[in-house]
Design goal:
- There is one protein chain.
- The protein is mostly beta strands.
- 0% of the residues lie in helices and 59% in strands.
- The chain is built from no helices and 11 strands.
- The strands form 2 sheets. Strands 2, 4, 5, 6, 9, 10 and 11 form a 7-stranded mixed sheet that branches. A 4-stranded antiparallel sheet has the order 1-3-8-7, with no helix packed on it.
- Strand 9 and strand 10 form a beta hairpin.
- The radius of gyration is 14 Å and the shape is elongated.
- The N and C termini lie far apart (41 Å).
């Protein structure tokens, strides 16, 4: 069984910064892709940024130049640094990971709330 746990959300003012963390733990051999998604009230879940195991990280258009992801492969952790936050960045941020253990896994965390006030 694999667990995906996010942390680091909170309330921040316009222009502020937050750093989210996602830790994957449990019974697995390797993690392929780790990604951050977000979902605002009444809207579909959208990709914020993704980190493939062997490849270049990708970002949603809204995240370019403001957000950055860092993957700590040794500690099975993905960080999302968010700068210059705007009210439209408000939402629940989810971490998604897939990979292989005794069998293939594809799991989501419970999410962490990010609220940006104006």
């Amino acid at each position: 069984q694999v667990q995906v746990v996010e942390s680091g959300g909170g309330l921040v003012q316009l222009g502020g910064s937050l750093r989210l963390s996602c830790v994957v733990s449990g019974n697995f051999f390797t993690i392929n892709t780790m990604e951050w998604y977000r979902q605002a009230p009444g809207k579909a879940r959208e990709l914020v940024a993704g980190s493939p195991r062997d490849g270049v990280s990708t970002y949603g258009a809204f995240a370019q130049g403001r957000f950055s992801i860092t993957r700590d492969t040794y500690n099975n952790t993905l960080y999302l640094q968010m700068n210059n936050l705007r009210p439209e960045d408000t939402g629940v941020y989810y971490c998604h990971a897939n990979g292989w253990g005794p069998r293939y896994f594809d799991d989501w965390g419970q999410g962490t709330q990010v609220t940006v006030s104006s």
